[in-house]
Hints:
Elements lengths: L2 H17 L2 H8 L3 H15 L4 E3 L4 E3 L1 H10 L2 H16 L3 E8 L7 H12 L2 E8 L2 H9 L5 E5 L7 E9 L1 E6 L10 E2 L7 E5 L1 H16 L6 E6 L2 H9 L5 E4 L10 E7 L5 E8 L5 H12 L1
Parallel strand pairs: 3-4, 3-5, 8-12, 9-10
Antiparallel strand pairs: 1-2, 5-13, 6-13, 7-11, 7-12
Helix pairs in contact: 1-2, 1-3, 2-3
Amino acid sequence: MARAESIGLLDTFIVVAEELSFRRAAARLHIDQSALTRRIQKLETQVGVQLLLRSTHNVQLTDAGLYFLEANCGVIDRYMSSIERTRSVSEGLYGHLLIGYMNFAGVDLLPNSVKTFRELFPNVLISLLYVPSQLQQIQLSRNEIDIGYTIGPTQNQDIDFKTLRQEDLFLIVPGESSLASEPFVPASRISTLKFIMGDDDEWSFYRWKIEGILREHNVSLNIIWKISNITALYGMIAAGCGVTILPKCMKRALPSSLVAVPIADLSSGIELQIAWSKTSRSTYVRKFLALIDAT
């Protein structure tokens, strides 16, 4: 017997068990009593035992019928709930969204978008995963994440992207440094400074991008420390161990012991992008991107 028919027969039985009247159950199900009787008989044949005792004036559950009712009373509710949830998933109102992000997106771009999306779609679970930019394109291609907040350029034929913001670059120096009081630092002075930059595992793509921008101005970085953790990087700068270069958005997250000084004469900065797989069919991705387009 088809499973869908079994669900219908079970629903009929539960209504009869609740009403203990074929007349009232038939009215509630909008069918005649003869059709109701055939349904109950078909269910009893399927189960292999008598579930109901019917007389002229009343209906009673057999012991087997009472057990069958108790064992299945929640089945219809779960079935109907699953239908509603399935429709919600199809409409992008319920589900799971995996978002990869790098440090710079975590200051404002990511929090603002996620907050608004959660308010609009409270039943969509959002998982935020820290993923360095160089790994996001791989994970997007493999559908391991749905959306990535990354540093541009995105150069993968399987990935679509949108540039959210172009970020100017700032020199991050100790607050007590003489550079902290300067209105700006000429790009040509960069080569004379000692730098603390992110390590190869977490920051290689960003460092490659910075070095490329500076190379256009015949400027190179003298890197004396490589650190993976940005909190430790801040601590090393505050201790006077060196300086670093970060995009403008990171000014909001700087500790009070550090100062961000604009770097003059640079022709470009850092692109902050949102990226997604071209093959994605996720309703949640489409809704999240629509939110980005609207803001």
